[in-house]
Design brief:
By secondary structure, the protein is of the alpha+beta class. It has one domain. 28% of the residues lie in helices and 38% in strands. The protein has 2 helices and 3 strands, in the order βαββα. The protein has helices at 25-29, 72-92; strands at 4-17, 38-53, 61-65. A 3-stranded antiparallel sheet has the order 1-2-3. The protein is elongated and about 60 Å long. The two termini are 33 Å apart. Mean pLDDT is 76; it is low at 69-73.
Length: 93
């Protein structure tokens, strides 16, 4: 049985492309309600990580601002994995 819960928070930038036949105030006002846009994840950054003990006797909680990936190559590889996962999730929506 697990002893700790680790929550990792990310900041994600993405864009949505919509193809419109006409540009007017009504179309632009309803743009965010549409579900036919093409999603593209641009960037994912690690933000914070929270560690919580699941043991009722040990109430240790730790919050860290992350700078865990110092190597740029590793960071890019990690971002690609997260972008791929998020892209798959967004396509299902």
């Amino acid at each position: 049985m697990a002893k700790y819960l680790v929550e990792t928070y990310y900041t994600c930038s993405f864009k949505v492309n919509h193809y419109l036949d006409d540009i007017n105030e009504k179309e632009l006002a309803n743009l965010e309600k549409r579900d036919d846009g093409k999603f593209e994840v641009l960037d994912v950054k690690l933000d914070t990580r929270k560690t919580k003990s699941l043991d009722s006797n040990n109430k240790v909680t730790e919050t860290k601002k992350l700078d865990i990936i110092s190597n740029k190559v590793s960071q890019k590889q990690y971002q690609k994995k997260i972008i791929l996962l998020l892209s798959k999730k967004l396509m299902k929506v």
